[in-house]
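Students often ask what a holo structure prediction actually looks like on paper. The answer is less mysterious than it sounds. You provide the chain, you provide the ligand, and the output is a string of discrete structure tokens encoding the 3D arrangement of the protein together with NAI.
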Amino acid sequence: MSISFKDRVAIVTGAGGGLGRSYALELARRGAKVVVNDLGGARDGTGHSDAALKVVEEIEAAGGEAMSNGASVTEYEQMAEMAAKAKEKWGGVHILINNAGVLRDKSFAKMEPADFEFVVKVHLFGSAYATKACWEIMREQAYGRVLMTTSSSGLFGNFGQANYGAAKLGIAGLAKTLYLEGAKYNIRVNSLAPLAATRMTEDIIPEAASATFAPENVVPAALFLVSEDAPNNVIVGAGAGGYHSAWVTMNTPAILPEGERTVEGFAAHWDRISRREGDFVPQSGMEQTQRVLAEIQKAAAGG
Ligand code: NAI
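The corresponding structure tokens follow.
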């Protein structure tokens, strides 16, 4: 079964290079009309260039349809203008891949507050602003596929990336509420943690391994997650031909007897409270609460 994006309008932020460029090329090859957004700055977010325009030229040379956009995801008004232009030219916005990103790595002890703020602004606020700019359009047309770019650094932690990790887990959190709010309008929201040799990883992935870590190996996961039959509320990891899912889970709640609901009682039951048992994936915060209440009722009934 081939997966087509014919007549779909897609916006890919930060698509002037790296992973975003690969997503944009493949979406266009499969029939989507693509807005190639990129500020064209350096890895740390400084400067500008016409990176987006070059990708549009590549798409057009291959027979596809695209428009370039040099706006910054950190400016909501610019994002709103970008979405409006796409709608005006092509009639809607069906797909948004929030991919733009920057790095300002330093151990937390040495990190300037401004570098924390900037990285969170680009990744987390940028993803929220671009999504907000498309949200009403997607609601009106009762169709939307939004992909958030999270990271192993956000999901699991990484030395030297407190700013980046905080933003990336924030983005996954954003997805978890937007999927609930979008469900009624056929808007699905997923998160992808990629791994690829790009300028972002040039310090950690050696040149010799760059073919193994080609961005093209991440493209299948990204495109499936914005396709018509995409799942909803999933977190997927992709890179070098390896693909997996990740979850936010909880164990079976321990219900402490009334007299043991003390600091000492909690300490005494810590082994049980922290044991990975009865793994459960709540689909919302409400479901987590219900899971705890169900266990309380069971305990009260003598179960
Ligand atoms: P990249 O540096 O090649 O791509 C990021 C793009 O975002 C650049 O073209 C940059 O100009 C653009 N950008 C930066 N600030 C922008 C702004 N304010 N507005 C619009 N565009 C802006 O790096 P790569 O690796 O392709 O990264 C893509 C995404 O994947 C990022 O969100 C990154 O954090 C994420 N990621 C990448 C991993 C990897 O292994 N390469 C690992 C985990 C996450």
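The chain has two domains: 9-246, 258-300.
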